[in-house]
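Reply to dn_fold:

You asked what the input looked like. This is it:
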Amino acid sequence: MLKPYFAVIMDSFHAAFASRILWVAFLAIWILLGCLSPIGFREDFTTSFRVRDFENGTRLKAMLASALVDPEVKGKAVARIAEATPDDLKRQLERVGQGDEVRIPLQQIADSLNMMLERDDWYDAVAWKGTNRLRERRELEERTRSELSASEQQRLGRLRIEAAVPGVFKSRSARSILLTYAGIDFPATLAIDQSQFTTLINQWVVPTIINWLLGFVVIFLGILVTASIVPDMLEPGSLHLLLSKPVSRTALLLAKFLGGCVFVFMCVTQLVVGLWLIAGLRLDVWNARVLWCIPVCVFLFAVFYSVSVVAGLRWRSAILAIGVTCMFGALCLTVGVIGGIFDNLVRGPARIRDIAHSGDAFVGATAGGGLVRYDASVNAWVDVFETDAFSGDRSLPPVAIPGGDFLVAQVRGGRFNPFGSGSLDLLLLSAENAWEPVPSLRLPTGTTWIHGAAPARMLAMNAGGLAMTSVEEIRRAAGEVATGKDATGEAVIEDGDGSPAASTSPDPVPDWIAKLAGMMGGATSGFRDILPPGVALAAPRRVAVSVDGAAIFVASAGRLYRLKASPGQVEAAWLVEAQVDLEGEASQPLVLACGDRDLLVARAKEPLRILDARTLEVIASIETDASLMPVQAIPLGGTNAFALLDGEANCRIVSETPQASGPAWSMSAALGPGEVETLAYAAESDNLILVHHVDQVDEYECDPEGATNGLIGTSVRSIRPTLSKWRMLDRYVMNPLRFVIPQTGELGETVAAIVSGETTASIDQGGASDEPQIIRYRILRPVVSCAIFITVMLTIGCVYFATRDF
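and this is what came back:
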């Protein structure tokens, strides 16, 4: 029964195989694979400094300049580095220290530091005694210089420089990949280790090659070769001969369609298998999932070929079939581009990235750099700071404070620059002021994060430091004390003369020292630095505060500190109560949250770790899926549990559950609505707040025990804001249009997900934010859309072929 159909398929196979274009494509693939085959790699220590290694160049310049002009810094590690710089750079830094505006290229500083790596006469053990000694540096310093290779000596020099100027450099892996071609090193070095290199190959390089070569070149060639198959079949002599056999017209057309796909299958198989072998043999990246690109790419070709088949049936012309298919491709591309514009300019910027809650009021920071407030009277999010996709501004996460007010801040031009432009004021947002931001204290330069700390205190973190102030000080600076409200909403505490208590301010300092301190991100008026001596923030950095505010947990470059206030010394720096080196890759971003008794530490591709909040000892380790990417974690007050947001936009509950052998920690499956943007905890109501699907809000009663039954808790409130006109156009026009017209370009994301084995990817946003940008792959939507389209087009073709007299 099936033999005639196999004959038709083989006939299509022979027709495609006889095409000269096929052999030209084969030759091009062989040449490409031959050009790629000499590529290789080797791994070495990360040593040299590059411009993109600087997270905060302004801070570095200020620290070096201060070391040259400030007598109090003489003899310290940073002074030894500054004095070892070339004379021309030293003169420029001295002018900076004297208050002059001098532009010093970062490349000049990087070159100077790289020259220092060739020697160690600038190093002094006494000067570096108070600097942070991470595990890698300690291990290298335990060996004598003669025992270290040249690369290890330079690596040790880099670690010492990074320790002397904390908060300046981005976090980099200890080892770097150097690409080679025919045994010759490329001039560029990838500051990533072997595992990160494997991820780069699987998640970016291979999918990009597949998308461009198979998504455009091979498929276009395939249409050129196969467009004539159906018109040739309709020739009177050919069609009559085929129909004389015991075959149905529908099966005949489908057999021709399958036969036409053979061309792309042969090309794709050679290219994909060749890339897989090169990646394995030359780059040591053996990933069998790459072979799944073969059926995906044939599936992609089938979308366009189904249009070519119908066009060939209708007009019986290969030229017209190619033209109609090209127009269809242009239509898909146009809709995809317009859809991408809606994603990037309408939907994406409106996403609420962080949210704060007090009473019935919600304030959120958007991905577009704006700040919005929920107005129940109009059921809509109202702009406090305008959300603009083209703006370079960045809003810090809002903080709710006692009294029902909020603290907010916006960094002008700070989306890709931690300093932005101009001063950064802490703003007070309150209903009494008609929700108009009121300037208060000036935040330390380069502040990237603000957080409330009980009782009635607030923290500000920047690239290198952590500063604290009181809510009362903030209200006083904003003029709120005159209204009779203090930090707790009660009467203002007064001095004996009836006036408000004066704030404590530091003694006046010279202008040039104040300017340098500002450039370095030091505490401004009203704030005080709380980091103990010898503790500095270095990327990746995270801060968490205990529920009672008595302890602050600081994660810095793979080390975790527990800090407590100095007894009886309000203005003094906090003390290190405990510290520990965290297991795992220190350069990887982490998530940190503090509960009633325990601390949650999470990194991508590592087990979740539960630490004792007092001793910092690991008490539990939760194995997770390798693709799990922690994005945010918050404690659920009153319970020994945490809410965790993963990279797939799902909320999970990490909680302690009773077992026969004693309590054990576990993580639930995904709970609540999908596409969760951010989490928050409402302490006054003991509720969990989930922002999902761009700007919708659900509030749940916390029920960690119910997580085992697929529940978060009872829903107590839902906010479904009214959509703007552009959002309505996106939801009701663009989304259906993008589903009806197959988005073949999005199949590239499907390929990336298949090859990498992950559904999300993270991109480092640079020094402006400690939060990596999360990319969520669209996997099922393009597959379903394309499958439906192929089915519809083939059905139309089969009906047309079966009902027409040819």
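The longest helix spans residues 249-283.
Hope that clears it up.
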